[in-house]
Amino acid sequence: MSTFTAGEELPPLSVRVTRRQLVQYAGASLDFNPIHWNERFAKEVGLPDVIGHGMLTMALGARMITDWLGDPGRLAEYFTRFTRPVVVPDDSEGALVEFTGKVAKVNEDGTARVDVTAKFDGKSVLGKAQAVVRPS
């Protein structure tokens, strides 16, 4: 893809986040906060269950963009706010997180802003998730 078109939709990405992935991500990121692996602790602090790392959810959104671009180096900026946790059950299915994206604006320099939506259980989990991408 060398040029972008406003309104263009990215191929959607659906990912099942499992407890195993949370443990793997914790090891890679060194984020061992017990809300991400200890059900008892998560409930004691008012969460419904263990929750996924916000940065893992954000990274999965970036994966959708870089898969579409075909070159991770073309992702210039990416930012979001975390609006709702992804609750990850203790089963083999995990939590289904669904990502969509759309080119919202093409800039004069050829870069484009991509708006990303991430939903879990039908509700948004990322707020104002946006990326700036470069043409090839």
Automatic annotation (TrEMBL):
It comes from the Bacteria. Pfam families: MaoC_dehydratas. Residues 13-118 form the MaoC-like domain. PANTHER family: (3R)-HYDROXYACYL-ACP DEHYDRATASE SUBUNIT HADB, 3-HYDROXYACYL-THIOESTER DEHYDRATASE HTDX-RELATED. Belongs to the enoyl-CoA hydratase/isomerase family. This is Dehydratase.
